Backbone:
């Protein structure tokens, strides 16, 4: 979230789209009801289904799954063509005036530089700004230059007429118009809309671009950095934000640092490429400090063994030959026998990844699988024949499976990072059952055994293992406190920081401004620096006061970065440094420094007249409508159909087959044959969770099993009537990859949509059942999901595919 | 009033059962109704925690029995929202409200187990056996497949033939330590639930 | 709550002392804020240590299918189309309404099995319950259920154990959106009035409070978008009144029956206590067999007494 849960109460309008906050995040959704109660806010829900969120909405409109960019593109066109934008904000805080290189172009659904054979944009050289001789980007403040971002954007979205948007989305034009008009009222300075989304946007082959299109709308309205505004990803799991922050991804390091590629043999070049210089005069471009963050990380990991001479252990980090070995890639390799061992820590891939049958086949090729989990997951028993729900030949599966019992949240101390980026400490309430052990203990035990074996026997490249810093009092079970202090960081030697304050060696750092690239500081995750200072554990703070009534709660727990609750909050003030609206005051310039109801996300002593812009992490200093070369499929979001499309063509590019679905989407060669077509599988399906359950865990909890006991699918009344299906009947839902069977819930809440002059029925498939647990056993829903995904995030397209439905 | 004969007797007869005794002077001593429901948290220990499910991060209070004396193990008997928490303000959704049954789920694993190739059953093993076996498997695959140099002779130091999926509900401290260990092995097939 | 707080007991003519003056409490359920998440259902069962059977999906979101001795509250979902074609998903938390004039208590023949506290809570004391099911006949909301295990009646207690120590009921505490609130009855009426102003401003011209007079008002009240038609909320009675059968017992049949009172009656009573509640089927007019203990099928719309093992697979 750019903003945070309680801040939703500051909104005037709430758009829930690509998510179902009332069901998936009920206690966060309370702040929507608070905004309605105390701020006269209105709630608009756009969703393929009339959800429980829609049940309390002021306005609901249906949309075809996977068509959200058409809706947002139409909205951008509407805002620009009716000139309902926050002019001063857009002019000052975004890239509208930047001049784009002449090499950039867009034709018939494809941007410049596309290589059809490789299904990728091989040449992104045109996707950038014209640079002047001074190295700064060229701008045209009058916005008249036809190559400026404003004009290019206007041109790009002029194609998204209300008619085209409506026929693509299947949303009646009158509904669309009503929503757009209401959203446009939030272009008034001080009136804000918040957007709440979740996997309803991310789980598409165009997921990242859907979210960008929403961010563009919010920038046009001047709603980013504002209280009650922002683009708010409601993360799915309790510490998925934390694990992302800590870089537990193929190509990442803690704090959004990145691993080098093969070509980056030179350490200085590696740092220089990431320490981006400002693209406009006077901008902060905070990533200039990349080297400080990186060296401090390597000091936390390798201690005294990381030295200037060995480039802080640069060669101990693996290098990437491809963008990343994400989980889809790994399972694709696994299916081809190229992966021999796999470890799952609290992760249930045969339930969570797309195409369960493909995943099972891949797991069956492993030599060994280690599962660490509090619960008996389906993955740990993927080899067990569970009848129709897991029809495998056990004797033929030669995978050795080792299952290690772990403690759960109630049985450990530690911190979790919620969607608000709050690091919250929790305490152990009881011992775990039986012989359960913490993840920390298991990973430590594994490391110590490996280190011992490498010491004794030698082996491949033992250096990083042998050099890893392991300063913990109890080596096989480091305490969460020790690890939290390491994450925050310490002064390695006595020193004086940038402000002139003396720091003693061993002292906890108070913030990332103290980090250095000379090896004198260590910090396991620079954005967490400040979470455990000399003043103690900031994550355990419990002052819930709200002195300004702005719902920022600065004394509760600790938010990264530096306890800033709303990102880019400098943008909540005018260029002159005063809030756009006194009722929406977050930060302001008091004549000497920036202060406010939130911690300024800005350099505290830079006066407004210096012209430093709010988006301090961007070298431009401003927010980007034009994504330069950051995205796989183009600088502007463009609508592409789901890979399994119910209408067969892209209404925006009906004649260009290359532009039907995402030309740069993630798909493996072997997957094309598993895709179905509308003539065989006519219905657009989407998967989702229900409020009564949490993924595949809560089916192991009796109380939740009672509340939602048995697998079902949701079918609209019209389709049900056509198919002779009544509520309570059992139905088979099939696709080219397999089938599931479930009880039919027949509902008025899913209605047929008119899309591209044809009727499209949608089928809703909740995902919580499986072949272990206390609910009635059922099929893993992802049996139906295609094994492909977004080209940027590699997130699978679980929200949009084709099925057939039959009564059994 | 629409009342048939059967219903009349039903009313009269059943009503007689109780009240007639009172009418006959056999009333119980007036109003010594005992306190029928006892407050079960009167002697519990409270521990602050955070809900492990979604990303709202609701504050929890774990209520456990056991006075923390030596040899006394705490047992969690109730989970309720933390009313001080600025986001959830004491509330919990159906998942959070049912956490007690997650903690005490019959599906909780109790000890390490191994499923041998082709086998249809789990075999209980000790932690020492299990971890020794994992270390052996990890080292064998790493030693056999570690790539120090690519085809161009560039130093790459990566290991691709074993992968790791990290937990989405593990604490940051556990996640950090996991990252530290896994990366020191040179592993790149490393991912977490954020991907899906 | 202590005995001084009891103001009425079933089948007891003498007045309890009720020496303490207590404010009347009420739970207000705002159906317009309710998201049907069932947190209240789960929290209720968790607090009261109830675990119903793992049932089936019957083609709706309602689960369990009906109230039972182990499910004291549940959500009832209705897909409602308004006259102008708008779809609404009306979700109502069902459970005991804690009537000011409780039909269950009036109907209950067993002394002290049903009590009413000075704060308005109507509670069942299973130690005194004889399982006759009369409370069910007396209840205009069809709430109490007889347990198949111990043949005693159960329903929501309004968490009288929590309220006694100054806490709100478990369902209120947990409710994520604040759709369920708890306090003095007057405060709840005021809060409801504010909600109704807001709802009217959002176009719900018939928004209103459900606090029906027919049962003397209730200590569980609803804010409804359509207070003119409570029945659209899964059959919430438009004008609930205590069953005429109960009135008959109190008014007409009691004096008549007193005349007929004698040894046979006492024997009948002890038969009750020993064997259990009497059930007479209307269809069974010719061959009444009072020794057979049956539960009136009208009392149990849904029978959770057909347990199916968790995880059992349907054919």
Residues:
């Amino acid at each position: 979230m750019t903003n945070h849960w309680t801040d939703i109460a500051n909104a005037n309008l709430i758009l829930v789209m690509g998510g179902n906050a009332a069901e998936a995040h009920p206690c966060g959704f309370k702040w929507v009801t608070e905004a309605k109660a105390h701020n006269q806010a209105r709630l608009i829900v756009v969703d393929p289904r009339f959800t429980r969120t829609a049940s309390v909405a002021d306005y609901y409109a249906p949309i075809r799954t996977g068509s959200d960019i058409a809706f947002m593109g139409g909205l951008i066109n509407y805002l620009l063509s009716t000139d309902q934008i926050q002019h001063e904000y857009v002019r000052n805080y975004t890239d509208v005036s930047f001049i784009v290189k002449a090499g950039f172009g867009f034709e018939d659904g494809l941007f410049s530089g596309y290589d059809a054979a490789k299904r990728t944009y091989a040449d992104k050289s045109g996707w950038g700004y014209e640079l002047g001789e001074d190295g700064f980007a060229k701008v045209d403040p009058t916005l008249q230059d036809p190559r400026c971002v404003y004009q290019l954007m206007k041109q790009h979205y002029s194609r998204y007429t209300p008619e085209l948007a409506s026929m693509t989305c299947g949303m009646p034009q009158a509904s669309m118009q009503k929503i757009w008009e209401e959203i446009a009222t939030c272009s008034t300075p001080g009136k804000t809309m918040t957007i709440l989304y979740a996997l309803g946007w991310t789980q598409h082959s165009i997921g990242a671009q859907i979210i960008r299109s929403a961010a563009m709308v919010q920038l046009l309205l001047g709603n980013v950095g504002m209280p009650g505004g922002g683009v708010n990803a409601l993360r799915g799991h309790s510490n998925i934000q934390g694990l992302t922050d800590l870089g537990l991804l193929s190509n990442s390091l803690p704090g959004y640092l990145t691993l080098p590629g093969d070509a980056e043999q030179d350490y200085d070049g590696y740092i220089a490429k990431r320490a981006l210089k400002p693209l406009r005069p006077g901008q902060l471009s905070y990533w200039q400090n990349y080297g400080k963050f990186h060296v401090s990380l390597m000091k936390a990991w390798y201690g005294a063994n990381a030295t200037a001479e060995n480039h802080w252990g640069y060669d101990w980090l693996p290098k990437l030959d491809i963008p990343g070995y994400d989980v889809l890639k790994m399972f694709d390799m696994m299916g081809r026998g190229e992966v021999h061992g796999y470890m799952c820590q609290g992760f249930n891939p045969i339930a969570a990844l797309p195409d369960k049958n493909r995943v099972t086949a891949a797991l069956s090729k492993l030599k060994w699988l280690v599962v660490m989990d509090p619960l008996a997951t389906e993955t740990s028993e993927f080899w067990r024949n569970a009848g129709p729900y897991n029809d495998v030949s056990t004797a033929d599966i030669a995978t050795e499976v080792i299952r290690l019992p772990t403690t759960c949240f109630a049985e450990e101390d530690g911190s979790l990072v919620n969607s608000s980026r709050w690091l919250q400490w929790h305490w152990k309430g009881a011992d775990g059952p039986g012989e359960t052990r913490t993840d920390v203990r298991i990973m430590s035990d594994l490391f110590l055994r490996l280190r011992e074996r490498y010491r004794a026997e030698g082996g491949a490249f033992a250096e990083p293992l042998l050099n890893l810093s392991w300063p913990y009092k109890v080596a096989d079970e480091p305490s969460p406190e020790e690890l939290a202090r390491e994450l925050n960081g310490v002064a390695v030697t006595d020193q004086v920081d940038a402000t002139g304050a003396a720091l003693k060696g061993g002292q906890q750092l108070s913030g990332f401004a103290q980090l250095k690239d000379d090896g004198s500081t260590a910090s396991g995750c620079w954005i967490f620096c400040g979470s455990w200072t000399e003043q103690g554990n900031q994550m355990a703070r419990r002052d819930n006061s709200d002195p300004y009534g702005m719902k920022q709660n600065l004394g509760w727990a600790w938010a990264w970065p530096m306890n800033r609750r709303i990102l880019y909050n400098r943008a909540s003030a005018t260029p002159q440094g005063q809030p756009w609206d006194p009722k929406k005051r977050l930060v302001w310039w008091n004549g000497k420094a920036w202060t406010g109801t939130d911690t300024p996300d800005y350099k505290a002593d830079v006066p407004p007249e210096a012209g430093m812009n709010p988006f301090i992490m961007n070298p431009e200093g401003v927010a980007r409508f034009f994504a330069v070369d950051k995205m796989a499929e183009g600088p502007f979001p463009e609508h592409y159909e789901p890979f399994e499309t119910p209408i067969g063509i892209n209404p925006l590019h009906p004649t260009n087959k290359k532009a039907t679905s995402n030309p740069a989407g993630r798909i493996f060669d072997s997957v094309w044959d598993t895709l179905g077509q509308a003539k065989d599988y006519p219905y657009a399906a989407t998967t989702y969770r229900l409020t009564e359950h949490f993924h595949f865990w809560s089916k192991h909890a009796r109380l939740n099993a009672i509340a939602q006991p048995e697998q079902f699918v949701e079918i609209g009344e019209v389709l049900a009537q056509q198919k002779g299906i009544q509520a309570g009947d059992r139905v088979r839902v099939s696709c080219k990859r397999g089938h599931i069977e479930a009880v039919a819930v027949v509902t008025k809440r899913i209605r047929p949509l008119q899309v591209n002059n044809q009727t499209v029925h949608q089928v809703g498939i909740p995902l919580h059942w499986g072949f272990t647990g206390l609910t009635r056993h059922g099929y893993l829903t992802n049996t139906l999901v295609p094994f492909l995904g977004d080209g940027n995030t590699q997130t699978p397209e679980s929200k949009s595919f084709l099925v057939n439905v039959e009564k059994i | 009033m629409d009342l048939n004969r059967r219903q009349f007797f039903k009313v009269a007869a059943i009503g007689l059962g109780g009240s007639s005794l009172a009418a006959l002077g056999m009333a119980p001593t007036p109003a010594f109704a005992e306190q029928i429901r006892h407050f079960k948290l009167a002697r519990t220990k409270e521990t602050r925690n955070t809900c492990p499910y979604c990303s709202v991060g609701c504050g929890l209070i774990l209520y456990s029995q056991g006075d923390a004396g030596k040899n006394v193990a705490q047992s969690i008997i109730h989970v309720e929202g933390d009313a001080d928490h600025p986001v959830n303000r004491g509330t919990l959704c159906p998942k959070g409200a049912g956490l007690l049954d997650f903690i005490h789920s019959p599906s909780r694993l109790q000890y390490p187990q191994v499923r041998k190739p082709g086998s249809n059953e789990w075999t209980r093993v000790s932690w020492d056996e299990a971890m020794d076996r994992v270390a052996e498997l990890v080292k064998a695959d790493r030693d056999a497949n570690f790539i120090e140099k690519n085809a161009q002779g560039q130093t790459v130091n990566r290991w691709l033939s074993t992968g790791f999926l990290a937990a989405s509900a593990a604490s940051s401290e556990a996640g950090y330590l996991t990252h530290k260990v896994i990366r020191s092995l040179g592993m790149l097939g490393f991912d977490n639930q954020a991907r899906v | 709550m202590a005995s001084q707080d009891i103001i009425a007991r079933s089948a007891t003519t003498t007045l309890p002392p009720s020496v303490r003056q207590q404010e009347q409490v009420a739970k207000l359920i705002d159906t317009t804020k309710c998201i049907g998440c069932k947190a209240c259902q789960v929290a209720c069962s968790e607090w009261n240590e109830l675990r119903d059977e793992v049932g089936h999906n019957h083609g709706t979101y309602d689960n369990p299918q009906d109230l039972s001795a182990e499910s004291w509250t549940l959500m009832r979902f209705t897909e409602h189309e308004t006259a102008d074609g708008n779809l609404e998903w009306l979700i109502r938390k069902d459970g005991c309404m804690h009537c000011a004039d409780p039909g269950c208590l009036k109907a209950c023949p067993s002394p002290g099995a049903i009590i009413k506290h000075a704060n308005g809570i109507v509670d069942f004391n299973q130690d005194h319950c004889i399982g006759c099911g009369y409370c069910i006949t007396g209840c205009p909301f069809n709430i109490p259920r007889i347990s198949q295990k111990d043949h005693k009646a159960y329903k929501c207690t309004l968490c009288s154990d929590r309220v006694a120590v100054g806490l709100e009921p478990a369902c209120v505490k947990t409710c994520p959106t604040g759709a369920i609130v708890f306090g003095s009855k007057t405060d709840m009426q005021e809060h409801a009035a504010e909600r109704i102003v807001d709802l009217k401003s959002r176009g719900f011209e018939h928004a209103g409070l459900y606090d029906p007079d027919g049962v003397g008002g209730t200590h569980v009240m609803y804010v409804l978008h359509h207070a003119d038609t409570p029945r659209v909320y899964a059959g919430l009675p438009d004008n609930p009144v205590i069953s005429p059968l109960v009135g008959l017992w109190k008014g007409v049949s009691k004096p008549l029956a007193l005349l007929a009172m004698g040894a046979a009656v006492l024997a009948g009573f002890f038969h009750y206590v020993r064997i259990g509640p009497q059930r007479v089927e209307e269809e069974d007019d010719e061959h009444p067999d009072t020794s057979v203990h049956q539960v009136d099928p009208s009392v149990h719309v849904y029978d959770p007494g057909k347990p199916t093992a968790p995880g059992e697979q349907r054919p």
The mean pLDDT of chain A is 97. Residues 657-807 of chain A form a domain with the Barwin-like endoglucanases fold (CATH 2.40.40.20). The radius of gyration of chain A is 26 Å. Chain A is about 20% helix and 15% strand.
